[in-house]
Write the structure tokens for this entry.
Amino acid sequence: MRIDILSPDKTIFEGEADALVLPGKDGSFGILENHAPMIATLAEGKVKVTSKGEDQFFEVNGGVVEVVKNRVIVLSE
């Protein structure tokens, strides 16, 4: 699935990934290929992107995530 993690002033990550774990307002949650469409708010914490068996971590200070048709857009604060 395609992942874009954006902050107001730069692109933090863009590329393909197998899995994504996000710090939601009500607890962390994961997104995999073919996830149902959704919009959720994020809390401060780490975003974990897994691609080809390797994990990358990115800090966010809250924001929102949108999932539609194997495309995930994270707008972070």
Remarks:
- The radius of gyration is 11 Å.
